Amino acid sequence: MPHTYFIADLHLSEEQPEMTECLMRFLTSDALQADALYILGDLFEYWLGDDNVTPLSTQVANAFTTLAAQGVPIYFIHGNRDFLIRQRYAKASAMTLLPEHVVVDLYGTPTLIMHGDELCTRDVVYQKFRKKARGWWWPRLMLCLPLSTRLKIAENGRKKSKQNQQKLSNDIMDVTPEEVVEALRKHQVSRLIHGHTHRPALHDLTVDGHPAQRIVLGDWYEQGSILKVSAEGVELSNMQF
Question: 160-169 burial, b if ≥16 CB within 10 A, otherwise e?
């Protein structure tokens, strides 16, 4: 049966090789049978720039290139941790970079896909950072800095993010329901797939009197969270480490 896979929030790092091993198993098994693979952001724990070539980034790039060579196209939408990925790494990984919001036809159902962080509007502190980070000047400035400086900035950002999350309620860190409805309405679709919140689930809702669905991808901190979409429906599953 034709199907497409979606993954997000892998947060790959040298410190947790079990995540990478799980991804490698997926790419050399189930993923080979897919029509396409979409990565909806936060592939890496952080990305300092395409000039920061590491054994991990090379391993992932080679694995993606091998999969693409088998006829499985790979698409990538930036997350809040890896928004500095550019064409150099995309080309090395055989990935196609997509805009922040894309509507794809999944077996007859137009579906909006995104990372999902822009939906969490109640986290005011983060949204201020996001506006700056996704602007034109801040990424250019960061990429002009030495790698050692970028690493310090990334590590400090991770610490501040964890501290900020400890102070926030679950509702603030989750999506704003009104933003979900507005996104579906704006793009004139009835289905949305996103990551970011690390709360895998299938949510049924109503938009302007019509049934709709929001599908949330899980993270890879404890297992590999994978969404399989086909003409028959959707299936969220986990790959064990």
Answer: eeeeeeeeee
